[in-house]
Amino acid sequence: MLVFLDIDGVMVPAKSWTSPQLLSDGFPAFSDKAVRVLQHVVSGGVTVMLTTSHKSRFSVEEWKNIFLTRGINVQNIRKLSDSPFGLSRRDEILNWFNLNEITEHFIIIDDDKSLNALPSFLKEYLILTSSMIGLSDSHLEIIDTIMQKQVQDL
């Protein structure tokens, strides 16, 4: 399974009235709720495809350590290519799907409202979070439903 994952507004809620807590690696702590949900999602042979604007700040090995420090063991991490043209998140994801054959199940977890304009064959696998709350237990049922649907579609 492939999990397209944003960080800000998903793993780190965006609360304008407070700065996020930075850990020793210089990156913000993830919310406990988001950690629990992502742990549920990434169990097994899951690849996390980082879509975050932070994706190029760290190498894949550094990202693995960032997740591990926050209690999530992700062995397979990839990153969307940097967009030299300042594409929207929606366009970055669409470009990836246009350039790559879909050979595995996937979900997209993001807070970017531009993703509401994804084509239906992608949008039906979108978990859209509230940026101030992030990924939470309320998303588990939706994630499980999407994952079950994809298994049934085999």
* CATH fold annotation: Rossmann fold
CATH C-level: Alpha Beta
Mean pLDDT: 92
Query: Under the CATH scheme, which architecture would be assigned?
Result: 3-Layer(aba) Sandwich
Count of alpha/pi helices? 5
Helix content: 25-40%
Structural class: alpha/beta
Question: Strands of the largest sheet, in order across it?
Answer: 3-2-1-4-5
Distance N terminus to C terminus? 13 Å
Shape: globular
The main β sheet shows up as: 5 strands, parallel
User: How many domains is the backbone divided into?
Assistant: 1
Oligomer designation: single chain
What order do the SSEs take from the amino end to the carboxyl end, as H and E? EHEHEHEHEH
Radius of gyration (CA) equals: 15 Å
Question: What are the defining features of this structure?
Answer:
Rossmann fold; 32% helix; globular
What's the quick description here?
The protein is of the alpha/beta class and 154 residues long.
What can you see in these coordinates?
- It contains five helices and five strands; from the N terminus they run βαβαβαβαβα.
- The model has no long low-confidence stretch (mean pLDDT 92).
- The relative contact order is 0.21.
- The protein has a five-stranded parallel beta sheet.
- α1 links the parallel β1 and β2.
- The protein has one domain: Rossmann fold.
- With 154 residues, the chain is of the alpha/beta class.
